[in-house]
Design brief:
By secondary structure, this protein is an alpha+beta fold. The protein has a single domain, classed as 2-Layer Sandwich (Nucleotidyltransferase, domain 5), CATH 3.30.420.100. It has four helices and four strands. Strands 3-2-1-4 form a four-stranded mixed beta sheet. It starts with a helix and ends in a 5-residue tail after the last helix.
Length: about 120
């Protein structure tokens, strides 16, 4: 019973964040974060054309070669840097940050700070 209450809280938080992002009526891509205990995934999504512009995650082969764990703050910082560099190459400077249902703390915050540090504006 406890897990269903936590799951419902997560879903409510996620829908609240998405509603605020979509109701702001912006034309910027959405920087969407998904995290698990072992990995973290990031996508830049164009909601107008329904396509992914740029993505980065800790399951990519060159990340595994560095012998880093995918479930820590150091990995989140690296993925933030990687997605920001790929976005700049693709010509994207401004995005809207979608943290999903996750709290802006820990790995999610580290990823966002790293992306900002490497010239992504949100």
């Amino acid at each position: 019973m406890f897990s269903s209450k936590v799951d419902n809280t997560f879903k409510r938080r996620k829908s609240r964040v998405r509603f605020r992002i979509h109701s702001s009526n912006n034309s910027y891509p959405r920087l969407s974060v998904y995290r698990t205990n072992k990995n973290i995934y990031v996508q830049l999504i164009d909601d107008v054309n329904n396509c992914t512009l740029v993505s980065a995650s800790t399951i990519e082969s060159h990340f595994k070669e560095k012998d880093m764990s995918g479930g820590n703050i150091e990995a989140a910082r690296y993925i933030g840097k990687l997605v920001a560099e790929r976005a700049v190459v693709a010509g994207i400077k401004k995005v809207v940050f979608d943290r999903g249902g996750y709290l802006y703390h820990g790995r999610v915050k580290a990823l966002a700070d790293s992306a900002r540090k490497y010239n992504l504006v949100f």
